[in-house]
Design brief:
This protein is α/β, with parallel strands linked by helices. 40% of the residues lie in helices and 28% in strands. Strands 1, 2, 3, 4, 5, 6, 7, 8, 9 and 10 form a 10-stranded mixed sheet that branches.
């Protein structure tokens, strides 16, 4: 499953605003005193997670950005180069300087349904991801945790959908629309039936069973007037997903969508998670 660069660019400011400050501080504390770190970012999209995380990490950083979609990897390279204070090419890598940090970025196309050990090179210090785990299956999560546990690797992940949505003003179809959307969330996105809103709980149990210390924190989108464009795209995608389920009649979906496009504020729940081997 892939997303358009335009959608990822639209959501990036809301994603960065939503991140849990307490978990970012925990990440900073975990690697305090080190001068360098090697990070693998799974399902990297256009590189937003690097841009949202780098300031909490040591001054010399090596990132491996992994995605199935080569167009998103190309978008990540372009956007990171534009975002950095300076950017130079070093073979296939991009070397960035940003706010006093040196960041070397490698780009790796891979199918995450395959052998995960192949995308985690020797010397990896941290695995990270954003808005990924609600799309994969509980079985995939169990296998992923087992791979990390064998190598005693920590995971820092953000913006996993938790199933809560509150719209203002309310609409009579909100409950039916949300139930249908959750059914769509549980469909197979290429990794088996998706964990959807249960993903963070599934991960937390698996990591705890593997002997990790697990910390969770809320990271909701709060979409007011400043995020009106994102909210409009969100309701359009939401309605499209509901249509695919056949659980809500077309007239109800159309009425809900027309009301939501006229203007809305909304709360969309996410969770961040930091899992550290004891």
């Amino acid at each position: 499953m892939s997303f358009s660069p335009a959608w990822l660019a639209l959501r990036e400011p809301a994603d960065h605003a939503a991140r849990s400050v307490s978990l970012l501080d925990a990440l900073r504390h975990r690697f305090a005193g080190r001068d360098r770190i090697s990070v693998v970012d799974l399902g990297c999209g256009a590189g937003s997670n690097l841009r949202g995380t780098f300031a909490a990490l040591p001054g010399i950083q090596s990132w491996r950005l992994v995605d199935y979609d080569p167009a998103l990897l190309a978008a990540a390279r372009q956007r990171l180069a534009a975002w950095a204070d300076t950017a130079t090419e070093d073979g296939e890598c991009l070397v960035l300087r940003k706010d006093g940090r040196e960041i070397s970025v490698a780009f790796h196309q891979a199918d995450l349904t395959g052998d995960l050990d192949q995308v985690l090179p020797a010397g990896t210090d941290l695995v990270t991801a954003a808005a990924l785990f609600d799309l994969v299956s509980p079985a995939w999560i169990d296998g992923f945790v087992a791979v990390l546990a064998r190598r005693r690797l920590p995971l820092y992940t953000v913006l996993t959908y938790d199933g809560t949505e509150h719209w203002d003003p309310p609409h009579p179809a909100d409950a039916a629309m949300l139930a249908a959307f959750h059914a769509h969330q549980g469909s197979d996105k290429g990794f088996g039936p998706a964990a959807g809103p249960q993903a963070t709980a599934v991960m937390a149990r698996a990591f705890a069973a593997a002997g990790y210390a697990v910390t969770r924190a809320a990271s909701p989108w709060e979409l007011g007037p400043a995020f009106a464009d994102l909210a409009r795209e969100l309701v359009t995608g939401f309605a499209g997903a509901v249509r695919e389920t056949g659980r809500v009649d077309a007239a109800t979906i159309d009425a809900w969508l027309a009301a939501r496009r006229a203007g809305v504020t909304c709360h969309v729940g996410h969770e961040d998670l930091f899992a550290i081997p004891r």
